[in-house]
Amino acid sequence: xxxxxxxxxxxxxxxxxxxxxxxxxxxxxxxxxxxxxxxxxxxxxxxxxxxxxxxxxxxxxxxxxxxxxxxxxxxxxxxxxxxxxxxxxxxxxxxxxxxxxxxxxxxxxxxxxxxxxxxxxxxxxxxxxxxxxxxxxxxxxxxxxxxxxxxxxxxxxxxxxxxxxxxxxxxxxxxxxxxxxxxxxxxxxxxxxxxxxxxxxxxxxxxxxxxxxxxxxxxxxxxxxxxxxxxxxxxxxxxxxxxxxxxxxxxxxxxxxxxxxxxxxxxxxxxxxxxxxxxxxxxxxxxxxxxxxxxxxxxxxxxxxxxxxxxxxxxxxxxx
Amino acid sequence: xxxxxxxxxxxxxxxxxxxxxxxxxxxxxxxxxxxxxxxxxxxxxxxxxxxxxxxxxxxxxxxxxxxxxxxxxxxxxxxxxxxxxxxxxxxxxxxxxxxxxxxxxxxxxxxxxxxxxxxxxxxxxxxxxxxxxxxxxxxxxxxxxxxxxxxxxxxxxxxxxxxxxxxxxxxxxxxxxxxxxxxxxxxxxxxxxxxxxxxxxxxxxxxxxxxxxxxxxxxxxxxxxxxxxxxxxxxxxxxxxxxxxxxxxxxxxxxxxxxxxxxxxxxxxxxxxxxxxxxxxxxxxxxxxxxxxxxxxxxxxxxxxxxxxxxx
Lengths: 320, 312
Fold this sequence. Notes:
The structure holds two protein chains of two kinds. Chain A has two domains: 14-54; 61-311, Alpha-Beta Complex (2-enoyl-CoA Hydratase, Chain A, domain 1), CATH 3.90.226. Helix content of chain A is 51%, strand content 16%. Chain A has helices spanning 9-27, 34-53, 57-64, 72-79, 121-126, 134-150, 167-171, 174-187, 202-209, 227-235, 241-248, 252-257, 276-295, 299-312, and strands at residues 80-85, 98-105, 108-115, 154-160, 192-201, 213-217, 221-223, 263-265. In chain A, strands 1, 2, 3, 4, 5, 6, 7 and 8 form an eight-stranded mixed β-sheet that branches. Chain A starts with 8 loop residues before the first helix and ends in an 8-residue tail after the last helix. Chain B is of the alpha/beta class. Chain B has twelve helices and nine strands. Chain B has helices at 3-20, 38-43, 59-66, 93-104, 138-154, 172-176, 178-191, 232-239, 250-255, 265-279, 293-297, 303-306, and strands spanning 26-28, 35-37, 72-74, 110-117, 120-127, 158-164, 196-204, 218-221, 261-262. In chain B, strands 3-4-5-6-7-8-9 form a seven-stranded mixed β-sheet, with helices on both faces. In chain B, a hairpin with a 6-residue loop joins strand 1 and strand 2 (35-37). Chain B is globular and about 75 Å long. The chains are: A alpha/beta, B alpha/beta. Chains A and B meet through helix 7, helix 8, helix 9, helix 10 and helix 11 of A and helix 5, helix 6, helix 7 and helix 8 of B.
């Protein structure tokens, strides 16, 4: 059962009708509906092209949060071999919202770290909807130290609504953990590559995305605050999220113009959730290219370039 | 509605209320309600003389009290591009900026200065909560980088007073990018072996806490300052339970191991001098006036007198 977003309603109707016709035909023999059904398919395809041609920023947020969108775990399983999860921050707990460990990418050993949101109720609760606690960031810090020690590139997959706003998380130093994780990203003398695969939610994303190269999937978003949060603060009305999403300039396309995103990874028609394999392959191609660019560089150059890249941000704005 | 309620009564009221509390002379403490005379309050660094409640203090007032004789030189901050996203909510961003500038008479939400405290040269940066909630945008990021670069150039410690509601939403992702940018600034100090001391003041929240404000060599907070990543209201909405008394306040963080010290504003200057002089391996500061000449004449070491602080 496909999950349709609210703006995909008309599409759902047409695809539903085609499906219905075909089921009907299967039940009663001799009935030929194929012509009619494929006409509907064609109409649906065209509608999909039209809908996804120019998604509004708010619609992009919806696509980025789509429950069937490939998540961190899907990318890790498909893109890496010998993935060996490494757990815990050696301090308090293992945070299941953050996956991390050793793996091979095109046979090269790397450290991979990412937010995992979960894909059903049980796993979503276990993964805390991809909202990390301090332990998650401290696990990442530990893994980045390991990467630095053994000269392994770091690949991060960012997909989080934000860091978890909870009592324990605050008591155990959520802000300090995020600050140290960002600091660690800036310190290590190995390539750091980040792909924003869904939602890049505020500080919780920055802690992993302070990288030499930041790529974003075509319909992913990266923002200082969620559109709902921004709307409730600036418009005093959380329902104004469409306006807020517009104003925040959180799409991969706008962020590319601002040099925050180095590369946009194309998604299959209708978003990554409609063809997971195609989306994953596009990420593979982008990662291969980015890693090849960085592999030959010395540790000190990588650190210097990474710093300079962030110091230079903000020199260009967007024109209206 | 008639002429009397619309016109006469407000005028009468305004005449009387003006006489009762002359503007700017008295301030009411938000905590205990005591009326405090302006001079008494500013002499006590905006700390209530009755209940010790720490009210906001502007960066300029803070620097006037912090630096020896109130003398400091402002460090120039590179000007960022204005309104990079052409941000518009119910008001245009440049309009909000103008209103904040008018209200505070400052250009932006951070002031950077160099000078001496207890004859100890430092660079200091202070965030202005009165300016759009002290929010961290590109200017604040540039200010922190400028402060760090200046500190490195002069080989001086950096003392940073934080106060902010978080990142400046009107600069979108570019405000978020100040988290890594300011972290680079902290690394510059670290590599130069210079002390970086953070004084967290009320309130320090969001992306500010999650970057430069939590990366100090020494972390000091003013009493009862709210210091957090997610604000208490957001947390209550998420976990749907009442938060404990004093949650996310300076003393609570101290108890949870997140701070080195909680120090009242009136003792902060002395404490900063003491800590900085130890970290930079300088002899202790001599407090109070210079000793009388005949006393020092008999002593061989005279350089101690040079360290004496007359401004206490």
